[in-house]
Write a structure and sequence with these properties.
This protein has 3 helices and 6 strands; from the N terminus they run ααββαββββ. By secondary structure, it is α+β, with helices and mostly antiparallel strands. The longest helix has 18 residues.
Length: 127
């Protein structure tokens, strides 16, 4: 059995690949059916529950926001018994405009799967 950090790292690798390529299948396979995430903007504004909603959300991110991919570099990983946080630098194009940011991406782990996702942005700026 993998520990929670190893599970979250594997999920994060799949998450990063999804952001860069739009291929989300491996990441989605690691989510619980009651996976939860929050988002501040419509059409996913508020608390979202369910793997099917997550699939629609991540596909939306790839097809509407970061159509040419977003690339993450991990700066630090912090964890406790149930949550693993990845502090990252990101860069790419957002809606066709240069985009760079710092963020903390948090995965909650339960039963060897990811059951929750939160993202905290530091600032948004363009090059």
């Amino acid at each position: 059995m993998m520990n929670n950090i190893a599970i979250a790292k594997q999920a994060f690798d799949y998450f990063s690949h999804g952001l860069a390529s739009g291929e989300w299948d491996n990441f989605l396979a690691m989510l619980t059916e009651d996976f939860t995430f929050s988002f501040p903007i419509a059409p996913f504004q508020g608390r979202n529950i369910g793997k099917d909603k997550a699939e629609r959300f991540f596909n939306y991110v790839s097809t509407q926001v970061f159509t040419e991919g977003l690339y993450l570099t991990v700066e630090r990983i912090t964890s406790n018994e149930t949550t693993v946080v990845f502090e990252v630098q990101s860069q790419g194009l957002m809606s066709g405009n240069p985009y760079q940011n710092q963020a903390a991406i948090s995965f909650d782990v339960r039963d060897n799967l990811i059951c929750g996702y939160r993202e905290y942005l530091s600032f948004i700026y363009s090059r």
